Structures are given as structure tokens and as C-alpha cells.
Amino acid sequence: MAITIVVGNFKGGVGKTKVSVMASWELAFERNKKVLLVDMDPQGNASTLIARSTGVTEINASIFDGFKNGSLKECIVPLTDNLHMIPAQVSFKNLPKFLYANVKEEIDQVTYLKRLLDPIRDDYDYIFIDVPPTISDFSDNAMMAADYVLIILQAQELSLEGAETYVKYLQFMADNYDADIQVVGVLPVLLRPGGRVDVATIERATELFGEENVLKNVVKHQERLKAWDVTGITNKDQHDNKAHQVFIDVVDEMLEKLKHFEEAGKYEWVD
Ligand SMILES: Nc1ncnc2c1ncn2[C@@H]1O[C@H](COP(=O)(O)OP(=O)(O)OP(=O)(O)O)[C@@H](O)[C@H]1O
Ligand SMILES: [Mg+2]
Questions:
Q1: What pLDDT score was predicted for residue 265?
Q2: How far is the CA of 16 from the centre of ligand 1 (A)?
Q3: CATH number of the domain within which 257 lies
């Protein structure tokens, strides 16, 4: 049974998609896990990046078709044995209209993705969901479908605004829809070139989220990570190597935490 993880923060451009894609990538290629990456963002950035990186030039499948047909199986794109994706296109922006027109109960609207994922969860070890930076039907559906959330902390901002809003939203979803989702960790990400970890920000995050929840690994700005948007993910030289290693470390730390949580009883641990 897959462990489903959503990468969250309600700010644009903080590295959510990069983290979803790279965590999926390292789990599949470096840790031999079966991974499904679900693109819940009509921008389709995760789909484009991962397709480009595996040599897929044309994507015909669409998550929206899966929503309309009531089954996601047909829109899974198997990129490699271990790495599959469900891609999104801009037309998926009409998801809210579709849900309001076709699904009567509010609870059924927010749990639509959850129900669609249920029949395929056994096929994977991990399912990652990439979401847009908005409080919307997209994020609601992702949250209800996920077991864990990895919160992105934009580490150069004292306000921690996007991450804090996310925690309030988690509480709202738990109160209103009985969402059962656990924070697996808070990952500091620094996107400014040459940026140092802002000690004050990390301290503030530690106060807010608890020391045990803030990951020890930090994703720093690396030109190579940005370049991969254009070239696709490569593994040819020392810069590639360094960029991969960051996410291998993040994934390993996350696996440790998941193991701890799962042993504590949420689900049976899959090794
Ligand atoms: N560690 C990094 N070093 C350098 N560039 C990065 C890093 N992480 C992400 N980027 C770049 O920053 C930009 C934003 O990243 P990304 O698309 O992952 O953010 P996002 O939070 O998913 O954005 P959105 O809210 O629009 O979905 C992209 O151009 C990406 O390549
Ligand atoms: Mg994104």
C-alpha cells in the first residue's frame, strides 16, 4: 500500500514542484521504490519536467480525463519500471466546474481524488502529489488523498507566511472534513543565489513546528537544478551529482521519519 505525500506551501515559486519531482526521482532511481507522481497543477510543470527527463516527447494522457471517467488507471504514464506519472494539462483548470456540476456533496467533491487513487495505491510504494500554490479544489483534493505533507519552508523569509498558512489550512481541513494527514517534515528551501540559511528563520520555524519536525537537510540554490527545467534531469558530471545528492539526503531523512511514524502505528511499514 503506497504512502501518499503532498508537498505543500501556499506561495508561488518556492520549489514545491522541484521537490516533488526530485523526491520521486531519487526514490525511484536511487532507492528502488515504485513511485507515482500525480500532477494536480494545471500548469503541468511537474509533468513537463519529468517527461523531458525520461525522453518522453509527447504526453497524451491527462488527469482530467481520469477525473471525468472515474478511473485514473488509463491516464498513468509508465516512464520507467519504477517511475510512473499522471500528467496534467491546462484544461485541468476546469476541475472546479466539473466537480460542482457533477458531484453533489461537498465532502465528495474534496475526496474525489482520494477515491480515484484508492484502486491503484497497492501498485506503488510512494505516491507524490504536486499542487498549485492556491487554496482551491486542487489542494483540497490533494490534502484529502494524502497520508503525509512535506511542508516547504522558504528559508529566507522571516514571515514564514506560506508555510504558516499551510498549517492553518491543515487544521481547517481536519476540523471540517476529518482530514487525517500528518506533517512528515518541514523542508527549508533557499532559492536565492548565494543565499545562506537564515538562522533566524530556521529558529522561528523550529519554534513554530517543533525541532523534531524541521528537516536537518536544506535545499540550497543550485544553478544546475534550475537548468534541468530546460535540459531535463541529467546525471553526467559533478554538478549533476551534487544536485542529486541533496535530494537523496532529503529522501533518506524523510524515509527515516516515515519509518518512525509508520512504526508508531499509522500503517504497516513497507520496506
Ligand atoms: N534549489 C533550487 N535551486 C535553483 N533553482 C531552483 C531550486 N528549486 C527550484 N528552483 C527553480 O525555481 C523556480 C520555482 O520552482 P518550482 O517550480 O519548483 O516552484 P513551485 O513552488 O512549484 O512554483 P508554483 O507555485 O508556481 O507551482 C523554477 O524555475 C525552478 O527551476
Ligand atoms: Mg509548482
A1: 72
A2: 7
A3: 3.40.50.300
